[in-house]
Amino acid sequence: MTAFLMLMLFLLPGTLWCESLEQVIDQKITLPGKGKTPYSIRELFMDIIVGSVSYQLNDGGLSSFAMSSPGLAKGAALFHFEQQRKIAYKNYERSMEYGSDADRKYYEGVIQRLEAAKVWISTGNGAPLRAALQNRLKGTVPQKQSPPSTVSKGSIMAAGTITNGVRGIPLRDNTVTLSLGLTPHGIPRCRGTVKIKIVNSTHADEWVDYFFDLHPGSPRGQDKSKTFTVFPSSCSWEGKGEITIRMSGRSWRGQVRWQAMAANGTVTGSVWGFWNEMSNKVPFDFIMAMIPDELVFRAEYYNSPRGSRLPPEKEGGDDFS
Amino acid sequence: MKRTVLLVFLIFSCVCASFRAEGAPQTAAQLYENGRRFEYGKGVSKNDPKALSFYLKAAEAGHVEAQAKTGLFFDFGRGTGENVKKAVFWYEKAANQGHPVAQYNLGCIFWNGRKGVKKDGERAMNLWFLSAMHGYGEAQHNLATVYFSRGEKDPGSYKKAFYWYYQAALQGLPKDQWRLGMLRETGKGVEKDLKTAVFWYKKAAAKGHGEAKTRLKKLGY
Asked: Which of A102, A116, A204, B219 could form a disulfide with B196 if both were Cys (CB 3.0 to 4.6 A apart)?
């Protein structure tokens, strides 16, 4: 009986959200700055997602619109934005895997707007959304856009590179992107992705892609039980994740572990625990021989509240010889 | 005496069991499964009128899949004469409960307008939007196509077209992969990027899309 009730409690909100989107989609609304002409909710959603808002959206108007929206419309909007954010995040990861910077940047923008839209709908604070939309309207892609955050109270982005490797094996692509922030309960969270590409030393036209998805990690050691109202100046985490290796249209997956420490705007850490498992999975020894069993990374904050700093750019590849 | 009682009990049980098998009402799910058996000829001969009669009973009992099927049978006149009003009625029942195929089909009826149903582009777009949100590729494609057609007058529409073409393309639809490549090549709605355009053209060409193959050839690939 208890299990049944738990299941119902778990399923109920989802069901309500789903139904509400069907119920509100035919409604039209009056938008701030758009006079009294009714505007379709569908188009408002689409405008925000693609960053094509041509009407006036000021903070005051946004807040009052968000706060005075009927509960049903609000719930539907939140559900919709969250669902699309999840899809956008998957597409963002895919674009990294197939190596399109253009698609990656595109999804960075989509994710940024969707996250800002969620803040707007749930709190009435339209400032992040306005900022995200203005970036788009000016035609400027926000500098080294953030990977999506899984935190709900703002986020700090960090970008960097893997700093070690196998002697004589250059890394063609080498990117570490991390997202740090606080959960609603004030617990510091960190997640991110690592991507490296290495040429097969025996067939120069063949590349091997190593993609690591670092799932959200938990604070470790003394940081374990602490909660914060602002992101702490230093913190360390550990977590699990997934490695995907791709070569010649084939791919192999496995588990990884990772740890990281943030202090004074720099995040240092490592990814390990995948080597033995993957060595048994991949069909050629050279695939694992080209990377070390522990990858060490270093990343710098680049949109910290203390001021914007661009991440270090590395072109042409690193050589660890 | 004991034997007689036992015999009477056994006969009574058998009579009850046979009565249940023949006359007991089936659940909505069982009715729907029977409808599928007759639609696809699973263990029986294909029979659209019989399939429809089972689907209709299940639909009346509130089975969402059956409601969508019933709408489809009336829409295309399968097992009965074409009846758009009845199709709309059953599609709406399923669509309101979030059935993506019913939402898509109902959207198509409103988009084109049919006997007794007025054209309503706005309603069609809303229905395709819902279906697209549930991940239905054809609805994503239709939405993208409508936005694309509006792009000349309203450049913002190209951005919306790109958004939905991308999601449809990921489902492996070559026509959408080709469109995505085209938008990337021409920079309509998104930043121009030939490398990404070629990536999508190649995806479409691998599935035999002729225009994508031609474009790749012209670009020297």
From this structure: A102
